[in-house]
Structure formats: structure tokens, C-alpha cells
Amino acid sequence: MTLPTLFKDPSARAWTGVGAAAVALFAVAPLALSDFRLGLLAKYLCTAMVAVGICLAWGRGGLLTLGQGVFFGLGGYAMAMHLKIADAGPGNLPDFMQLYGTATELPWWWRPFGNPLFALAATVLLPMAVAAILGSFIFRRRVKGAYFAILSQALAAAFAIWLIGQQATTGGTNGLTDIQGFFGYDLDDPVNQRMVYFVIAAVLLLLIVLVRQLMHSRYGELLVAVRDSEERVRFLGYDPANVKLVAYVVAAGTAGLAGALFVPAVGIISPAMIGIVPSIEFVIGAAVGGRASLAGAVLGAIGVAWAKTALSEEFPAAWTYFQGLLFIVALAFLPGGLVSLAGIVRRRRASHGSGDAGGNMDGGRDGDAGGRADGDTVGNAGEEKAPAVPLGGAV
Amino acid sequence: MTVILGQTFTGISIGAVLLLIALGLSLTFGQMNVINMAHGEFIMAGAYTTYVLQKSISGAGVSLLVALPVAFLVAGALGALLEWVLIRRLYLRPLDTLLVTWGVSLMLQQLARDIFGAPNVQTRAPDWLTGNITVIGGDDPLTFANSRLFILALAVAAVVALSLALRLTSLGRRIRGVVQNRDLAEVSGISTSRVDRTTFFLGSGLAGVAGVALTLVGPIGPTMGTNIIIDAFLVIVVGGIGQLKGTVIVAFALGVMQSVLEYSTTVSVAKVLVLVAIVAFLQWRPQGLYTLRTRSLV
């Protein structure tokens, strides 16, 4: 296979991308970055995991979930509860419970998390179960579009407020802090911090591969069909509610896993990381990179998280303005994200040649997800009036 | 007994604030299917307008009454500007509008922080609003705060004015026409883009009035809008689109429910219970309490 044909074949292109990412994450980054920067990168990669789920649910399914923080938090708290119990040692209460002094023994719903296997399973299964219950209620009754977005956001608000209210058992506003060990490894040791980074990088790559396969399966096609015209899919004999439910549940699972791995990487989980604002920040990374493209969403999430650290350290006010501008520019003027720029340039060139501006609908079908983001109408489920013009053409 | 009545009254006054906010949202969401996250910041703009006016006009009572129309104009102008610059480009992509206006709201919050400082500020309520009215005297008194009664009156006035305007004026007829069938309104010679901008002005202006009302019950700060806007959106979702009566009923119902549940449990548990109740309600009426019946599938 020669190089040009390699880059025409979408599957080969995707595997090349994953290979390049693996080299960057496992070889380049550990050598080039200091321990501190590598720790930050580990945090960004957790954000990228959430973006993988958002890419599936929102980019491909049109489900704007503004409540991913809830699932991130469920995974994070499940992991942190286990680590706190392990830190305290058998028979002892976690430090913050001793501090508040109200409880004399572990609350009943803390106890199962003492078992490492239960806690690990819960980090993924608990968010998925919550998403499945909530999603089946919402999607079956055809609550969709903006209504779904608002409900998911209200969920994030309610969950954060509930956590803050349960000071004695969840640590309240402070959250679960000062986590020392990770399944027997001391997290203060830089070597173990590196190990956590490698685990996070491996899980992220695995998630990308899994979700990519899901996107390119029959199911993935069906999901895009539901996004673009739910009623037609229903007339064809499918149940759109189930299709959406799967995407929502998978997205919840990836967010839960991200939260679980975020805890050993950062050493804290608190309501401030899962409320309305962080939930919507998970979305912006995917939107900037390209919501319908895995590569775009992941790189966008890492890029925005990096920009936040870099800018907000020195100019906190400037960061807020910049973030606001990011939302406006990325969504109003570049809905396909940065990955769609290449396609737009290509179409501009092609239309200059043929004199047929904006009419080239095939532009989006030339390969993998990156091409599709600018070819189809994006994130517009249930909007029959949407014009059959590629959104990228509006720029 | 009086405790329950008192909680119910508190709930009704919470509902009145929600109603003032949700009225504007119901206009813009109902007509243009636009979710304006910056609506909360228009509330903030109204509140800061009150603050600035009170600084420049000495009498608290006069400045409050002056603030009502001024805040309406300030917030309305902001809304019309937002519609003209951004939202009219996004009418076919309602979900993207949500995120774009979120970006706008972030910037407005930061702007408020830069102008007025990050800490909350307070306004002084005029003397005629500081007292209480005693409804039931005796050992176990039931009192209503004047400021909350004022907000309730303001909300009722806004509903009456808006429904009369929608029913009787020619602008109201055009707005109803566009809400019911945008394409048909367009081919009948209504300039839908002009109606859209006017509606946005009205809806945002109502947010400014809500901001004035909020200064009577709480502090003014850059994030004051974000905290209450989600509840107002839930009112719209549950109330249904396109008709005022759903918004009115649901705003008061949610306010009373929140207040009574808060009393019998805690604030945080009440929030969760209200949300559960809303999801359960949507199982029964997925389109909300009242909807326009159309033959379209979507």
C-alpha cells in the first residue's frame, strides 16, 4: 500500500492516527515533559475521555448533554470513596468524617465501596445505570432537542447542590480531598504519578478505538440518521429512543471512567468539578475541535484545557473573555470545528474551478469522521427546516 | 398551620420571580425556538441598573420606580443587539444558539466583574417596602413581607400587560401569527425578522424588570442570573410553549413546591425532588402542560 492510498482509506487513516497518538502519549510526552506538566497532561486526557463520549452523543447523535459532569462526578466519587476508605485503613473513618464528627461508623451506602472490585465496576456501571434510567424516561416520551439539553443541565445543577448539602457524608463543598494512595501505591511518589498517567493514556486510546468502531458500525450509521431525521428513521421501523439511549449510556460510561481516573491524577473531586459550568466546559472542547470527529473532539478538549491552564494562570479575566469568544466563534461561525477547515478550503478551491459555489455535497463523504463533520447538517436533530447546504459553507 | 401558609406565600413569591423571568423566555423560546442563556445576564443588567440609579438618585423609592422602565430599556436594548449580531444567524440551529449565548453570558458576567467588582452589592429598599403586613395576628402570627407582595404585584401586572398586548395590539397579532406558523406568517406579508427582533426586545426587557425585582430580595452579583435561569427554563419546559397560561401556572406551582419541600426536607433534597417530579410530569405530558396543537410530526 503506497502512502497516498493509505491516506485515502478511512480505516487505515484512523489506525495511523491512533498509532501516532500512541507514540506521542507513550514516548514523546513522558520524555519531553516534566513531572508537573505530565500530571497536567493526565488531567487534560481525562477531559478528552469525556469528549469522546460527547462526540458520540452530541456530534453523531445530536444529543446535547449539558450534564456530563454528573457522570464524571459519579465515577469520580465512586473512585474517591474507595480510595478514602483505603487511606483510612480498616476500622477507621475517612478523615473528613472524623473532622465533622457526626458519624460514628461508615454510612451504609459507603460500605460497598470498600471493596476495590465493586468500586471499580461502579465507576463505569453507576453512571451508565443512571443514564439508562433517566434516558429511557426522557427518550421514550420523545422529549428532545432543547428540552433534553435543559433537563440534562438541571440534572447537573441538582446533583452538585445535593452533594454540597450532604456535608457529613460527601464532604460538601470541599469534596473528597487529599487522596494519598491508589490501590496500594503512594500517589506522592512521582514514579506512581507517571504510572497513573500511563494508565490514563492507555484507557483514552482504548476508548477512542472502541467508540470509533461503534461509530463505523451499522449502529453508528443509524445514530447519524436519527440525528438528521428522527421521524424518517421511525417510519423505517427502528425505535429512535433505543438508538439515542445507547449513545447517551456510552457517553455516560466514558465520563464516569474519566472521573474515576481524574481522582488519582489530581487527588481531589468536588462539586465545583461537576456542576453546570464544568459540564458545559466539557462540551466546548469538542465543539472547538469538531464535534462529529473523534480526532477533532479529543484534540479540541486537550487544547482548550491546556489554553485554560496557560491563560487563566496569568490573566484570569482574559481567560473568561477568551472562553466566551471560543463559544461564540466556534459555534456561530465554525460549527464543524477546526477539523472542518480543511474541507472548507478544499470546497472553496473546487467551487472556484467549477463556478458552483457551495453545491458540492460530496465534500463530506471522502473518508473518516473529519470529513463528515462539514458535510452533514450538524447537531440539528428534529429540525426539518434545516437547509440542505453544508454548514461549513455558511462561513 | 400558619407556618404552612407562610411557606406557601414564600413559594408564591418565588414563583412570581420565576414568572417574571420565564415570561421573557417563553416569548423568545416560543417564537424563535431560541434558548437564550444570556437571559440571566439581562436580569443582572436590570439589577445593576437599579444599583446605579440608586447611586445617582438619592430617594430609594423614586429610584426603584425609575429603574423599572430604565432596566426594561437597558436589558431590551442588550437583547435586541444580541439578536441582531448573533442570534438571527442561528435560527436554524437552536442547540448551537444555546452554547453561543452561554459564551455571551460568560463575557457579560466578566464585564460586570470588571465594572462593578466581583463582590456582591446591595441596594436599599424604599421605606414603604421594608415592613410586613400582618394577616393573622396573635401568638402565631402570619406576616407577608411588603417587598414580596410588591414582586407579586409586578409579576401579575407583567402577565396582564403582556397578555393584553398579545391579544389586542397589531404587534401582538403578528407575534402570535409567527409563533403559530412562521412560514404562513411570512407569506402573508409579515416581516418575521422584524417581529423576531421586537419580540427579543420585549423578552429581554422583561428580564430587566425581573432584575429590578430581584434587588428587593437578594444581593446583586455577576453570577446572580446563572443561579436562577435554570429554574426558569424548567418552567418553560414544563409549562409548554406558545401560551402564557402554562408558564403562569407552572411558575407558581414550582415555586410553591420548592418552598414547601425545602421546609419539610432540606434545600438540596428539595432541588432533587423537584427535578424528579418534573421528569415524572414529562412522562405524562412530554410537550408540557399546554401546547399549540399542530399537525406537524416534530
Quick summary:
With 395 residues, chain A is an all-alpha fold.
> How many domains of chain B, as an integer?
1
CATH class of chain B: Mainly Alpha
Side-by-side strand order of the widest sheet of chain A: 1-2
CATH-defined topology of chain B: ABC transporter involved in vitamin B12 uptake, BtuC
Overall spatial form of chain B:
globular
Gap between N and C termini of chain A: 36 Å
Main location (chain A): membrane
InterPro entries (chain A): ABC_transp_permease (IPR001851), ABC_transptr_urea_perm_UrtC (IPR017778), LivM-like (IPR043428)
Transmembrane segments (chain A): 12-33, 40-59, 117-139, 145-164, 195-215, 245-270, 282-307, 319-345
Keywords (chain A): Cell membrane, Membrane, Transmembrane, Transmembrane helix
Task: Sum up the structure in keywords.
heterodimer; A: 395 residues; mainly alpha; two-stranded antiparallel ribbon; 17 helices; 1% strand; globular; B: 298 residues; ABC transporter involved in vitamin B12 uptake, BtuC; membrane (chain B); cell membrane (chain B); Urea ABC transporter permease subunit UrtB (chain B); amino-acid transport (chain B); transmembrane helix (chain B)
